[in-house]
Design goal:
The complex is a heterodimer. In chain A, 23% of the residues lie in helices and 18% in strands. By secondary structure, chain A is α/β, with parallel strands linked by helices. In chain A, β2, α1 and β3 form a beta-alpha-beta unit. Chain A starts with a strand and ends in a 10-residue tail after the last helix. The model of chain A has no long low-confidence stretch (mean pLDDT 97). The radius of gyration of chain B is 24 Å and the shape is globular. The chains are: A alpha/beta, B mainly alpha.
Chain lengths: 589, 449
């Protein structure tokens, strides 16, 4: 028999970026808000405090801030006829855990999708014709436009104090920014970060080839900053410990640095840690949710928490898992194409070229998660899909995030990976390398999806979620195209050694090496309930008092890091909740 | 000889009579005082308590607000604050307005005992009757009774002789009541808050031979010219040596509201004043305090805060115009002295090699009086124990500097502190390893108290 807690107006599941934003915005409406976080509490001091957070073995290799697979994982297979097996050792992607979620250990790259990415199906059909869309590709529009999201994206960037340079201010192209971005109403709140030498070399090479290099938009503050909640960032010192680490310096935007202390002051807000939500409970008529049941780790018991409104703010994969477990929305069946929950899972398609120079030293230990320079000349809006034979695009970028001794000891191909030879190579090459990478979109297909695993269960006895995913020819072609575009830029820098890594024909998804924690889709947004789980306000089509935040709403993956869009969508949903739903709770579409 | 003995005898008798009079003749209690600054509205009860910062002293670390038990450090020992919730047995339940006023104005407890001047009744004597009544309403009506018997104050002889406090009062207490004197309602309101309920002089004025505040209003030259509290320097708020002389009115205003600005982050006991009192001041009251402090300091108009978007930190240090210290640190020469190296390895990430820190978040160390104060208590304590800014309404971040006590030895802390005290434009005397050892022991004792 579950314990029952006093009813709240709102339950927020997960206290990361979206949970903290929805938490503070709804608490400021006077609502009693409870956030349930499955992991522990975390704060800059003591959890990210200098010097103990600068421990690559503990946090980089042993994943101190990530979810433990023994507590939470999923099964993975590459096609519908394989048997999925549990993801027992983290590799390909690293969901976060604890207060702040993945917002603690991210790098800080904060992008906006291009205008065409929100309406990709319409754009492709209008520009290149329907026929170029592969038969098994579930290409979709988001149901929201760049213009609609613009103020919310701006608000999120000002929340995080993004360092960058506008390229398109209200339609005017600004020299030195990204000329291919959607128009923005304001410049970034902070000037760009300083650039390391590899970025400078890339900038010069790209510019001389007629491309348009610009600084990456970074959530690593270039100067002291105060945001709308009065929360503060200090200038980044380029220590090189962003990704996989909490920021010791109050410099990287995170829920901790940007929201949480302000949120804690809200008298109607409460949060409970070590409280994993097991399912969202539905009313007898199946039309609304009545609250959630969570597992109280301290008491070792299930707790029913009644609430009028449930905001799902967990990691994108867990959002989908919770909806499947709670039977909110029809589960997707890849055999028939019916159902929506778990449909359109997508990832990201990246590649890179490494350059080694005997006579150049890049001081790689000076770095931040997002300093660097990018060109968008081969972005989604700039490619003739008809001519090139694929749908998608990438940004191409250089710049390093650090020179850590274990994971950032990049050596030329063919070097021994251990022993005396490796040591000699480290002595010879450490600091002599740079890379140019491509970070690209990934389309969703009929058989890239998420459902409940028939075999494996978690520690609460719930079926694990099963991921079915593999690379597809369209995306492999896109990735190979980027390699061809990067090659001449790299060669123009005259490296002594050059090595490229792009997907080969027939490449299969390998879950072992780290690739990216940009898992998207599965609880897709849209205007057609047959192909989406939530409407354009991120409200469940079926249970109107359930809203689902996060990248699970992306119908296919954009070419950028997703956090900017996730934050913009959160404020967009806040506006719909505050301006409309709370006054008259009902399906908004 | 006889005459001489007789004189001695008379003197002795007089002394005995005086002592007996001091000890036993009933106090005359100060009557209600007139309205403070013209036009000031009667404060709401909670606001009156915030203005007088009752919570800071009457709340123990981690304890129930106003239930007492916080040790107030004095040179004579710790004085434990009483429970001022209306609990009839352990608090002040049943106190009358006259009794309450006598506490605030005359330092006379309900039982007639003389109260130690850790309770700043010497400042509270300036409270208007309206504020006394508001405070009375707060402690009798708005606070819920909390049963909590705080630890008894046990000072060593002769400081345990409470009749001695009466003698002290005769010598030390200023006139009761506040008299507006600026002919300007804003300045008079500021003066009232600073000199009266805000009791700023309790820490920021020097103490005289009998440990009374040197002056109770800006008419006294020594008023607010710097004091000491729990070993920390409470900086001068007036005069050329005052750190706030170089602050703009906006800087000072932000500091009072948040404990942080472009120059400094609050430390020591002032943290409690910001946390429990100053952050709650209305904008008008805070502006009045700033106007008054700016008026009584001879520093004149300070530069306004720079406007416009924030500028990025320079990406190169140690260039043209850099101090010698900055150049040394920017050289990153492994052979640099230990203190400098410790600074690079532990402090430079936030405070930067130019010692300037960053606006509102990382305090500047160059010219910082906590760094250069005689005795270095504040600096060494901050290095050993770390520091935290209070969460406030407009700057909610409870910003923390981590502790370095577990990472650095006494000798290393001494090297580091000595370096910082002589770095950039700082010129303060070195800190010895023994001093660090003593402070570490004190911190440990406080933690286990």
């Amino acid at each position: 028999m579950a314990r029952q807690e006093k009813k709240k107006d709102v339950v927020v599941i997960g206290l990361g970026w979206t949970g903290s934003i929805l938490g503070i915005e709804l608490a400021r409406e006077g609502l009693e808000v409870l956030a349930l976080e499955r992991g522990p509490d975390r704060d800059t001091v003591p959890d990210f405090q200098y010097p103990k957070v600068i421990d690559e073995l503990r946090f980089g290799i042993r994943y101190g801030f990530m979810q433990k697979p023994r507590n939470s994982t999923l099964t993975i297979r590459r096609s519908l006829d394989e048997t999925a097996l549990p993801y027992r050792v983290l590799g390909s992607f690293l969901p976060g855990d604890g207060v702040g979620g993945a917002g603690v250990h991210w790098n800080g790259q904060t992008w906006r999708p291009q205008a065409v990415e929100y309406r990709l199906r319409s754009y492709v059909e209008e520009t290149f014709g329907k026929d170029i869309i592969p038969e098994d590709m579930n290409l979709q529009d988001w149901g929201v436009t760049a213009e609609e999201l613009e103020p919310h994206l701006t608000r999120f960037e000002y929340l995080l104090g993004i360092s960058g340079k506008a390229g398109n201010l209200n339609g005017s192209i600004v020299e030195g920014g990204n000329p291919f971005e959607a128009p923005r109403s304001k410049d970034y709140p902070l000037p760009p970060l300083a650039q390391t030498w590899d970025s400078v070399l890339f900038t010069d090479a790209a510019r001389s080839m007629g491309y348009h290099p610009f600084p990456r938009p970074a959530a690593n503050a270039s100067a002291a900053y105060v945001n709308e909640y009065g929360m503060q960032l200090g200038p980044c010192n380029y220590c090189g410990f962003c990704e996989r680490f909490g920021c010791l310096n109050y410099s990287k935007a995170s829920p901790q640095t940007c929201v949480i202390d302000a949120l804690k002051r809200e008298p109607t807000f409460e949060y409970r840690v070590n409280s994993e939500v097991l399912r969202i409970e539905k009313a007898a008529d199946g039309k609304t949710a009545t609250g959630v049941t969570y597992f109280d780790e301290a008491a070792k018991e299930e707790v029913f928490q009644p609430a009028d409104l449930v905001i799902v703010c967990a990691y994108s994969l867990h959002n989908v898992h919770l909806l499947l477990l709670s039977q909110i929305g029809a589960p997707y069946d890849p055999a028939t194409g019916e159902g929506v929950v778990g449909r359109n899972y997508a990832y990201q398609v990246n590649g890179g070229t490494s350059l080694f120079f005997k006579d150049k030293i890049f001081n790689p230990f000076v770095g931040t998660g997002s300093s660097g320079v990018t060109i968008d000349d081969f972005s989604i809006s700039q490619i003739d899909f008809g001519r090139e034979g694929f749908i998608g695009g990438s940004y191409i970028t250089a710049g390093h995030s650090g020179g850590r001794p274990i994971q950032q000891m990049s050596l030329p191909p063919g070097t021994a990976s251990w022993g005396a030879e490796w040591k000699a190579a480290v002595g010879e090459w450490y600091g002599h390398g740079m890379s140019i990478g491509s970070h690209g979109s990934n389309m969703a297909y009929r058989d890239t999806c998420l459902d409940l695993d028939p075999t494996y269960k978690d520690r609460h006895g719930r079926p694990l979620m099963r991921m079915t995913f593999d690379w597809k020819p369209n995306d492999i072609r896109m990735n190979q195209f980027m390699g061809k575009m990067i090659d001449p830029i790299a060669k123009s820098l005259n490296p002594d050694i050059l090595s490229s890594s792009y997907k080969k024909d027939g490449a299969k998804y390998d879950v072992r090496p780290y690739q990216t924690t940009h898992n998207v889709g599965g609880a897709v947004m849209g205007v057609d309930r047959k192909t989406s789980v939530v409407n354009r306000y991120l409200q469940s089509w079926d249970i109107h008092n359930v809203f689902v935040m996060g990248a699970s709403a992306f119908p296919q993956n954009i070419q950028y890091n997703p956090t900017g869009a996730v934050g913009g969508l959160a404020y967009w949903a806040v506006e719909a909740l505050r301006g409309d739903y709370l006054k008259n709770p009902r399906p908004l579409m | 000889m006889l005459t001489f003995l007789r004189v001695i005898g008379w003197i002795a008798l007089l002394a005995v009579v005086a002592v007996l009079a001091i000890a036993f003749v009933p106090h005359r209690r100060t009557p209600p005082q007139a309205e403070a600054a013209a036009g000031a509205e009667a404060a709401k009860p909670l606001y009156a308590a915030q203005l007088a910062d009752c919570a800071a002293c009457h709340t123990a670390e981690g304890g129930v607000p106003f239930a007492g038990g916080r040790p107030i450090e004095s040179p004579f020992g710790a004085i434990y604050s009483p429970n001022i919730t209306p609990d009839p047995e352990t608090g002040i339940g049943g106190i009358t307005l006259d009794q309450f006023r006598a506490v605030l104005y005359d330092g006379i407890g309900r039982d007639g005992r003389n109260l130690y001047p850790a309770m700043p009744y010497d400042n509270y004597r300036k409270l208007s009757e309206a504020d006394v009544e508001a405070l009375y309403a707060f402690v009798t009506k708005e606070l819920a009774p909390v049963r909590n018997e705080p630890r008894k104050t046990e000072l060593a002889f002769p400081f345990d002789q409470r009749w001695g406090i009466r003698a002290w009062k005769i010598a030390g207490l200023p006139e009761a009541g506040f008299v507006p004197r600026f002919g300007d309602p804003v300045l008079d309101r500021g003066a009232y808050i600073v000199e009266g309920p805000g009791h700023c002089g309790a820490c920021h004025s020097p103490r005289n031979e009998i440990f009374a505040q040197s002056g109770y209003s800006s008419e006294d030259d020594a008023f607010l010219t710097g004091g000491e509290i729990a070993g920390w320097r409470a900086p001068a708020l007036r005069g050329d040596g005052s750190p706030i002389a170089g602050w703009s009115a906006e800087d000072l205003d932000l500091f009072l509201a948040t404990g942080r600005n472009a120059h400094a982050g609050v430390g020591g006991e002032m943290r409690l004043a910001i946390e429990h009192s100053l952050q709650y001041l209305t904008d008008d009251d805070r502006h009045a305090v700033v106007a008054y402090l700016k008026k009584i300091g001879p520093q004149g108009a300070a530069p306004a805060a720079p406007a416009g978007p924030p500028a990025a930190r320079p990406d190169a240090f140690g260039g043209e115009g850099a101090t010698e210290t900055e150049r040394l640190l920017a050289s990153a020469d492994p052979g640099m002295p230990l203190g400098a190296r410790l600074f690079l390895d532990n402090c430079a990430a936030c405070h930067f090699v130019d010692g300037q820190g960053a606006d509102e978040i990382f305090p500047a160390l160059d010219g910082n009086q906590t760094v250069t104060a005689p005795g270095a208590t504040g600096l060494v304590t901050t290095i050993l124990r770390g520091a935290a800014l209070p969460s406030t309404g407009i700057r909610p971040m409870a910003l923390r500097m981590p502790d370095f006590g577990g990472r650095l030895s006494d000798a290393e802390v001494a090297e580091l502190a000595t370096f910082v005290r002589g770095a950039w434009h700082n010129r303060a005397e070195p800190v010895s390893e023994e001093r660090v050892r003593d402070l570490r022991a004190e911190i440990k004792a406080q933690a286990t108290d």
